[in-house]
Write a structure and sequence with these properties.
Low-confidence stretches: 4-22
Helix content: 40-55%
Distance between the termini: 13 Å
Order of helices and strands: HEEEEEEEHHEHEEH
Structural class: alpha+beta
Number of helices: 5
Shape: globular
Strand content: 15-25%
Amino acid sequence: MKKLVSRAALAILVLFLFGAMAQASTIYVTGFDSFNNTNLVRFSYDGTSRTVYAGEFLLTIDGVQSSGYCVDLFATTYVPSGPFNEVSLVGVDHIGNPIGYQAAWLMDTYGEGTALEKAALQVAIWKIMYGDSFVYNYGYNSAVGTYLDQYLNELGSNVYQGADYSIARLSPNAQDLLVKTPAPVPEPATLLLLGSGLLGLAGIRRKFRKE
């Protein structure tokens, strides 16, 4: 009986804590890795040619620094921009399974590289998302193309197994982004309630001991 009461109380506290953390986020786009010819790329999608800067977006998510990569060719993200309020952070399978987990694997594996390598990472994510409809122009930026081929070859059937990445649903105000999910920070009120609950558990245990 003692264990049953303690476990039930602890389960309620855990559910309350995670419920408080599972709220919509506020995101600012604070910068971009690089705006120069190193990461200027050209590709065609469904026969339409585009020339864009490819690379890593610098972000804050609920005040915590993070980073992200575009998973949406049909919107525009301005740098800097925000705040984007009430943004849902959803699982990477939002963009497809296994595509979302492959994109997360690419970001987790190659996300710490140079501006050139990050440009190739972005192009690789687009390629696995859009398939044959996405055609990279190797003649325009062959250096990015070299890393692109390397990343796609090394990707193979690899998928990310952890829970450190999410899709930030910024559209239609900006592009949806694959982001590194910051560790949740509970509100002060949640910490206070959690502490009170733990004290309550201690009180229950003491009472049982006295009986």
